[in-house]
From TrEMBL:
It catalyses: 1-(9Z,12Z,15Z)-octadecatrienoyl-sn-glycero-3-phosphate + (9Z)-octadecenoyl-CoA = 1-(9Z,12Z,15Z)-octadecatrienoyl-2-(9Z)-octadecenoyl-sn-glycero-3-phosphate + CoA; 1-(9Z-octadecenoyl)-sn-glycero-3-phosphate + tetradecanoyl-CoA = 1-(9Z)-octadecenoyl-2-tetradecanoyl-sn-glycero-3-phosphate + CoA; 1-(9Z-octadecenoyl)-sn-glycero-3-phosphate + (9Z)-octadecenoyl-CoA = 1,2-di-(9Z-octadecenoyl)-sn-glycero-3-phosphate + CoA; 1-(9Z-octadecenoyl)-sn-glycero-3-phosphate + (9Z,12Z)-octadecadienoyl-CoA = 1-(9Z)-octadecenoyl-2-(9Z,12Z)-octadecadienoyl-sn-glycero-3-phosphate + CoA. One of its GO terms (biological process) is phosphatidic acid biosynthetic process. One of its GO terms (cellular component) is membrane. This is 1-acyl-sn-glycerol-3-phosphate acyltransferase.
Amino acid sequence: MELGWLLWGAAVLLLLPVLMELSPAVNFALRIGFYYLLFFVCSALTAPVCLLVNGGRTVKNMRIIKTVVKTFKYFFGLRFEVKGLENFEVEGPAIIVSNHQSILDMMGLMEVLPDNCVQVGKKELMYAGTVGLIIYLGGVIFINRKSTSSAKMVMAEVAKTMATDNVKVWVYPEGTRNCTGDLLPFKKGAFHVAVQAQVPVIPVVYSSFTTFYNPKKNLFTSGKIKVEVLPPIETKGLTSDDVSELTDRCYRTMRATLFRLSGRPGE
Ligand SMILES: CCCCCCCC/C=C\CCCCCCCC(=O)SCCNC(=O)CCNC(=O)[C@H](O)C(C)(C)COP(=O)(O)OP(=O)(O)OC[C@H]1O[C@@H](n2cnc3c(N)ncnc32)[C@H](O)[C@@H]1OP(=O)(O)O
Ligand SMILES: CCCCCCCCCCCCCCCC(=O)OC[C@@H](O)COP(=O)(O)O
């Protein structure tokens, strides 16, 4: 019986490189599948540690999660080139906004995540098995994108509590993943919260993944991701009437940075 398994394992190991060469689809499926498996297994192993060390749902668990997720890049040959981390050093809370290209963003998020920073995520993620549990423990704020009114209420609550909790809140203003090398129009929620809480907006831009990652083309190889944390944009004195202009300004700055980091000529 054991010999059978041994032979089977050896055959797979020998065949794997051939399979991966033969079919990009197999290579893509294996790498993404392994990424999901890493999420699943590491979440299951890390949740008890978070409970033991910090006792429950708290942003302090993000430190543990970050330590684990930061190792994932080595499995995929991904490297991050980070600039501007000093821009996170603002007094007190802030709203951080970044572009969102893929599930791979979780590695980029954890690569630069400042202390005491939680994320806004779609509520469906709460049901993603062990990953749902670990992001709940990490303090992730869940919103229902299908109900603007309830999402607004959650965000209004965030604006009220982020000062007392002294947390930064990381929002993906595009509201969904977008791996086209450009930005989707920005939703305004993050900027309403920043103005309501009178805290700065800190834009973060990740260079385009399209050179090494494209699900439509079964492309997922190793690669370098440039990350730039831009100077904070103050909101003191702004009101809800200024939100559209603030959103626009942030969008333009981040889009220009995205093109620069990705070596794409600006428009
Ligand atoms: C140990 C190993 C572990 C391994 C695994 C660990 C993994 C890593 C660990 C942990 C990290 C986990 C991280 C998860 C990350 C997940 C990310 C996602 O899920 S991204 C999708 C969800 N995020 C969003 O959608 C945000 C952006 N959306 C918004 O902010 C929207 O604004 C929202 C949802 C609040 C409303 O969206 P609308 O679609 O209705 O569109 P709009 O244009 O923004 O708003 C419509 C009108 O309402 C006003 N409005 C919007 N928000 C408002 C507000 N808060 N207050 C007042 N008015 C508001 C606007 O001004 C607009 O009105 P006028 O066009 O100006 O007339
Ligand atoms: C082999 C067992 C594998 C079991 C799988 C475990 C569950 C894996 C779920 C991983 C989800 C972890 C968080 C990913 C964050 C993310 O990137 O979510 C996408 C949202 O931002 C936007 O969603 P969308 O609007 O659909 O683009």
